[in-house]
């Protein structure tokens, strides 16, 4: 006999419990566990009295010819770069970001460009009325684009409407947390509703071949709200990032079954919407203070694109028993390692100093190739030496103090040469493998060599009391 099962589900992480409790043991959140009624059958429907016999299906071999359709470019170059070249037929993409970061603006711009190319595009808003979406389109100058709009939250009604007429090339659901299905007896936004609604839309995308983009809310720590199983169900997960004090936004791929996960798309927020930034290095280096110590330019890589950013460091005597270590845009554990190497192998004593590190422009760096630039900025701030304005730095620092080579050195040097830099401080191996005409390279095989050069140039500026054996 069919029956409903009552379970208590954490609305933050999706963990299930047999009874209510104040704290979720899985994620540690308080007062996030709510009661939900879940059917005994698959998809939340009540189970039948008798088991249904399964049907047979055809099996294919590895040597078959697939009918994969070519990607559809949205004509937004930075968006297509992160997608891997464009939208894939039948793919489902989840895009998350902070409120007001520009998710809806980016998607309405991409929808308008696709619609102007003759494709059918449907924009379903569960948070705003149709008139509100039209006001945004009017502000962006997109009212002439034939995008089909609707304000609906029931996924069964949405799928039934989309099934009429030609198959849409793109369907935007804004947002998945507002969708609900009749198969689940719980409020919209709960774990069961988000999971079930996403499953219905994914099934429609795979069956019809339409590309579906789901907009997702994020929690306080930047994670996409709702059950983590939704991220496993979709084909790609994108994160739309940006700092409130900066006017640019970064679209980063967290998961992508049809493309790379290390590419980024850079946009600039303007009065007319989001503008693509084809050369983000010029944006990140704009307004650089060339005469201040504690700064060094790092030649990094984001996917296949070289990006030059400024590393800023401030080292000041501390009045606290435990000096502060503040990091913005880099890994704090990596900074602790660089400080330990400077202390143990280079004689740079920073145990009584506060250390502040910032990646200018709000970009977040994850690769260890920034070790050399960070070390140069720290020593420059400590000694008062002004780093050369025409030099870039990259290299990984090992625990022994050796500077290890990094990948794609040629692309880094080529980008530095294009932006007018004439010097590059690189690892020993990178100097021999990547020569760029007009760009001089200084090889460094040990961090102590770089520290000695910077300290020597800063003796006249400020006495380096924290550098031993000077």
UniProtKB/TrEMBL annotation:
Belongs to the RecA family. RadA subfamily. ATP binds at residues 97-104. It comes from Phreatobacter stygius. NCBIfam families: sms. The middle region has homology to RecA with ATPase motifs including the RadA KNRFG motif, while the C-terminus is homologous to Lon protease. GO terms for cellular component: cytosol. A motif (RadA KNRFG motif) lies at residues 255-259. Coiled coil: none annotated. The gene is radA. Residues 68-218 form the RecA family profile domain. The keyword DNA-binding applies. This is DNA repair protein RadA. Plays a role in repairing double-strand DNA breaks, probably involving stabilizing or processing branched DNA or blocked replication forks. DNA-dependent ATPase involved in processing of recombination intermediates, plays a role in repairing DNA breaks. Stimulates the branch migration of RecA-mediated strand transfer reactions, allowing the 3' invading strand to extend heteroduplex DNA faster. Binds ssDNA in the presence of ADP but not other nucleotides, has ATPase activity that is stimulated by ssDNA and various branched DNA structures, but inhibited by SSB. Does not have RecA's homology-searching function. CDD domains: RadA_SMS_N. Pfam families: AAA_25, ChlI, Zn_ribbon_LapB. Residues 354-470 are annotated as: Lon-protease-like. GO terms for molecular function: ATP binding; ATP-dependent DNA damage sensor activity; damaged DNA binding; hydrolase activity; zinc ion binding. Keywords: ATP-binding, DNA damage, DNA repair, DNA-binding, Hydrolase, Metal-binding, Nucleotide-binding, Stress response, Zinc, Zinc-finger. One of its GO terms (biological process) is recombinational repair.
């Amino acid at each position: 006999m069919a029956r409903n099962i009552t379970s208590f589900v954490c609305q933050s992480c999706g963990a299930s419990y047999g009874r209510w409790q104040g704290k979720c043991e899985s994620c540690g959140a308080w007062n996030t566990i709510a009661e939900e009624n879940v059917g005994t059958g698959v998809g939340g429907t009540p189970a039948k009295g008798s088991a249904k016999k399964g049907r047979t299906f055809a099996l294919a071999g590895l040597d078959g010819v697939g009918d994969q359709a070519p990607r559809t470019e949205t004509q937004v170059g930075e968006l297509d770069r992160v997608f891997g070249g464009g939208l894939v037929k039948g793919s489902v993409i989840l895009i998350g970001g902070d409120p007001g970061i520009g998710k809806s603006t980016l998607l309405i711009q991409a929808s308008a460009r696709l619609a102007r190319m003759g494709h059918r595009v449907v924009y379903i808003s569960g948070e705003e009325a149709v008139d509100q979406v039209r006001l945004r389109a009017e502000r962006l100058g997109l009212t002439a684009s034939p995008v089909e709009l609707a304000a609906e939250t029931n996924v069964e009604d949405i799928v039934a409407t989309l099934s009429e007429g030609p198959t849409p090339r793109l369907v935007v659901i804004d947002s998945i947390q507002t969708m609900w299905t009749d198969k689940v007896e719980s409020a919209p936004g709960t774990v069961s509703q988000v999971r079930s609604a996403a499953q219905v839309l994914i099934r429609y995308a795979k069956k019809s071949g339409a590309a579906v983009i789901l907009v997702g809310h994020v929690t306080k720590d930047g994670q996409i709200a709702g059950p983590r199983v939704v991220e496993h169900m979709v084909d790609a997960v994108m994160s739309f990032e940006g700092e409130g004090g900066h006017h640019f936004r970064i679209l980063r791929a967290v998961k992508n079954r049809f493309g790379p996960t290390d590419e980024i798309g850079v946009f600039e927020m303007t009065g007319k919407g989001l503008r693509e930034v084809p050369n983000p290095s010029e944006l990140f280096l704009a307004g650089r203070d060339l005469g201040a110590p504690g700064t060094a330019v790092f030649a990094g890589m984001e996917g296949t694109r070289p990006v030059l950013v400024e590393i800023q460091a401030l080292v000041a005597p501390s009045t606290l028993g435990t000096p502060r270590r503040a990091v913005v845009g880099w890994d704090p554990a990596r900074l602790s390692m660089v400080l330990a190497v400077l202390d143990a192998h280079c004689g740079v004593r920073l145990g009584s100093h506060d250390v502040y590190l910032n990646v200018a422009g709000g970009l977040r760096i994850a690769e260890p190739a920034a070790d050399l630039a960070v070390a140069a900025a720290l020593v420059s701030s400590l000694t008062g030496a002004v780093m050369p304005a025409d030099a870039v730095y990259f290299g990984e620092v090992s625990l022994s103090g050796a500077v290890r080579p990094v990948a794609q050195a040629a692309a880094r040097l080529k980008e530095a040469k294009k932006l007018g830099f004439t010097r590059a401080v690189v690892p020993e191996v990178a100097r021999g493998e990547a020569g760029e005409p007009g760009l001089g390279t200084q090889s460094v095989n040990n961090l102590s060599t770089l520290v000695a050069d910077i300290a020597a140039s800063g003796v006249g500026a400020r006495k380096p009391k924290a550098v031993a054996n000077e």
